[in-house]
């Protein structure tokens, strides 16, 4: 069975997504019902919603929306990684409110499309440190040249669990393996960072990619972090740029061929269950 730690729901009737205007094929609704129909056929038993960079004024509204989906009978949704703005002085008050919302299991601030120095600001770093003792995680989505900055955040906060999204956002289509590999090896030395096998098909030539194109990136990520520090995510609907949800699940199983049942279970569900305390 699989726990998906990276589902994006897009409902433009309920929330505003300014970035979608320039997102091409992703500029459409991607509703829970469409995901769940396919997910149930693939052995996905539980799902964490990943924030979708909604308009800043809709951040808390997004969490309420996800909570309403999670409350439906038989919903696969068991929690949310909520958006946040650690660079803002009012983050502490936001965190206090978030701690009252049981659906929120962690946070993410999109960094890979932001100025490199954002995560180096004093306010940003002080606010990330507020997560200590809360049990909430922080997802890092950074490009290869920003991985040093991700490592710095982890070094400053050894008691906070960080999750590195999308295998460090490698430029697979552009052949950027060497820089990425060196930085991934280094960032994975931080015991408080867990790697996430997700998203990489979107960085290929999405029309012609094969398993061999993504295998070196997946295998090096897993080798660097080890099976005790890996989780899995679909990155739906972004993964549909390069196929379907079923395509990515099939590719994952192919990448894990020959892996022991114990290690496979850790990556696909066990580690997520432990990190976010999702129960049996």
Tell me what the structure shows.
The structure is a single chain. By secondary structure, the chain is an alpha/beta fold. The protein has a single domain, classed as Metal-dependent hydrolases (TIM Barrel), CATH 3.20.20.140. It has 9 helices and 8 strands. Strands 1-2-3-4-5-6-7-8 form an 8-stranded parallel sheet.
Strand element count: 8
> What is the CATH C level class, in words?
Alpha Beta
Structural class: alpha/beta
Q: What is the CATH H-level superfamily? A: Metal-dependent hydrolases
Number of domains: 1
* Straight-line distance between termini: 12 Å
Number of helices: 9
Poorly predicted regions are: none
Q: Strand count, sense and closure of the main sheet?
A: 8 strands, parallel
Q: In the CATH hierarchy, what is the architecture at level 2?
A: Alpha-Beta Barrel
How much of the sequence lies in strands comes to: 5-15%
State mean pLDDT (0 to 100 scale). 97
H/E series: EHEHEHEHEHEHEHEHH
What does the overall shape look like?
globular
Brief rundown of the structure:
The protein has 280 residues and is an alpha/beta fold. Helix content is 35%, strand content 14%.
